[in-house]
């Protein structure tokens, strides 16, 4: 598209760029995906130039028509790029000049690539966040659907990956609903961060033309133009916010994936993952591997690394624009691509999970998960908690040695440990009764879990409405 000696900034230079530097300097290989946003911003900018008297009505029309033609070429895959184009902004401008002649050279009046690229990136992240929010609603809906189906299913809750206390499956799944609800809020806040428009800041000091930045901001869907031109071109907090929200989301997906990996193993047998999200072995015919879960864990590492990489990129960077910021898009694009694939997979995989309620209940029963209930039972009979804790601990140790469960003990065996035991003990070591006793707010008793489900349904309805309104 362009000659190496015909850069848009070539006037000050006697020599063309070294070919090696040209490869290092070019970003067209990855920032091409900003083309629609660059064109959208350029049309709004041209309109502002017309309002400021820089362009005539005819010149604006020629520029707008040319840019829309370029948009069509891009969408159809007919817009060709070359490393000599340097970046997408230069490529589009040079193509515009090819199409409409010298009038195209007027477009870059009152702007710099510095404010241009920051604006493009804001617009790109805004679109990505809207899609992520929609995908996240699908995941929340899938979790809620599985929780509804598991409101009567008892399973062991874990700490340190050791069976701890019985809980309802619905309660466990609603914990993930809470996590991903917070992720929704974090992503939603990114929309505020990208609502400030950098365009019109120029290179760093502002521009010499009375362009109506408020009108441009309104046309492009921004809340307002930036208040300080130096901050406008150097700010990437909105990208950091996006990458940070994505990183937290990735952590939560990895935790869910890790549990599904465990639960779907033969050792647990709590759930079967749909064949559609698993794969086999090239040598072992019997294998059904939960590869989607393993990849979700791995993708979380990428999301965290992108956030850290962007943080490192920005650390110690002096005002205003520095070429280092060209690399910011690599982190943003990779995160957008990663979430764009991983979130829909997570939602559909969760929706199609098949839980084995009987296996979960057996695991909750075949353990000492009711030991805390026994300790509380002794406390109700006047035994200090520290003493009851020790008594029950010794009782559990004896049961392990004798191969018994707490429910199999006789009253005589119990009273050897404490005179406080009576027939009421046998009402305590009942799985369903133990779950029902967790009546505290946020607990796993059926009534509390049903209240959590009601609240989750209401919140999800609001999130769906929020996403719909974004369109």
Tags for this entry?
single chain, 471 residues, mainly alpha, Fumarase C, Chain B, domain 1, Fumarase C, Chain A, domain 2, Ribonucleotide Reductase Protein R1, domain 1, 3 domains, two-stranded antiparallel sheet, two-stranded parallel ribbon, 19 helices, 6 strands, elongated, disordered N terminus
Task: Provide structural commentary.
There is one protein chain. The protein is mainly alpha-helical and 471 residues long. It has 3 domains: 10-109, Fumarase/aspartase (N-terminal domain) (Fumarase C, Chain B, domain 1); 114-203 and 221-363, Fumarase/aspartase (Central domain) (Fumarase C, Chain A, domain 2, Up-down Bundle), CATH 1.20.200.10; 371-428, Ribonucleotide Reductase Protein R1, domain 1, CATH 1.10.40.30. 61% of the residues lie in helices and 4% in strands. It has 19 helices and 6 strands. Strands 1-2 form a two-stranded antiparallel ribbon. A two-stranded parallel ribbon has the order 3-4. Strand 1 and strand 2 (162-168) form a beta hairpin. The protein is elongated.
Strand elements, count:
6
Using the coordinates above, name the CATH class of the largest domain.
Mainly Alpha
CATH architecture term of the largest domain:
Up-down Bundle
The overall pLDDT average reads: 94
Q: Tell me the domain tally.
A: 3
């Amino acid at each position: 598209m362009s000659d190496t000696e015909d850069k848009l900034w070539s006037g000050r230079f006697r020599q063309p760029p070294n070919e090696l530097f040209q490869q290092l300097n070019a970003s067209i290989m990855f920032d091409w995906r900003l083309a629609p946003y660059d064109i959208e911003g350029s049309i709004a900018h041209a309109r502002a130039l017309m309002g400021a008297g820089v362009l005539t009505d005819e010149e604006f029309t020629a520029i707008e028509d040319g840019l829309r033609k370029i948009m069509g070429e891009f969408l159809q895959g007919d817009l060709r790029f070359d490393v000599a184009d340097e970046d997408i902004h230069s490529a589009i401008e040079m193509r515009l000049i090819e199409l409409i002649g010298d009038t195209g050279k007027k477009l870059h009046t009152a702007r710099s690539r510095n404010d241009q690229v920051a604006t493009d990136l804001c617009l790109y992240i805004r679109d990505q966040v809207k899609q992520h929010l929609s995908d996240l609603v699908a995941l929340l809906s899938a979790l809620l659907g599985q929780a509804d189906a598991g409101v009567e299913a008892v399973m062991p809750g874990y700490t340190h990956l050791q069976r701890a206390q019985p809980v309802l499956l619905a309660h466990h799944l609603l914990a993930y609903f809470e996590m991903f609800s917070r992720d929704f809020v974090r992503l939603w806040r990114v929309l505020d961060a990208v609502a400030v428009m950098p365009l019109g800041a120029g290179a760093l000091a502002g521009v010499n033309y009375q362009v109506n930045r408020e009108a441009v901001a309104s046309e492009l869907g921004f809340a307002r133009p930036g208040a300080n031109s130096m901050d406008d071109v150097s700010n990437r907090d909105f990208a950091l916010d996006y990458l940070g929200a994505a990183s937290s989301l990735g952590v939560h997906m990895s935790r869910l994936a890790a549990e599904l990996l465990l639960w779907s193993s033969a050792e647990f047998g709590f759930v079967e993952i749909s064949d559609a999200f698993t794969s086999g072995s090239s040598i072992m015919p019997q294998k059904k591997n939960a590869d989607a879960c393993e990849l979700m864990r791995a993708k979380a590492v990428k999301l965290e690394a992108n956030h850290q990489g962007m943080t490192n990129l920005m650390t110690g960077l002096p005002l205003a624009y520095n070429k280092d910021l060209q690399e910011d898009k690599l982190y943003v694009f990779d995160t957008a691509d990663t979430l764009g694939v991983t979130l829909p997979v997570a939602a559909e995989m969760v929706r199609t999970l098949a839980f084995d309620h009987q296996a979960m209940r057996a695991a909750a029963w075949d353990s000492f998960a009711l030991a805390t209930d026994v300790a509380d039972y002794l406390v109700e009979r006047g035994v200090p908690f520290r003493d009851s804790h020790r008594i029950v601990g010794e009782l559990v140790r004896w049961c392990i040695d004798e191969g018994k469960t707490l429910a199999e003990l006789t009253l005589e065996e119990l009273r050897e440990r404490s005179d406080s035991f009576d027939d009421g003990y046998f009402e305590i070591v009942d799985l369903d009764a133990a779950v029902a006793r967790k009546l505290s707010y946020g607990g796993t008793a059926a009534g509390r879990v049903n209240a959590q489900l009601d609240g989750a349904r209401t919140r999800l309805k609001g999130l769906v409405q929020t996403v719909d309104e974004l369109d």
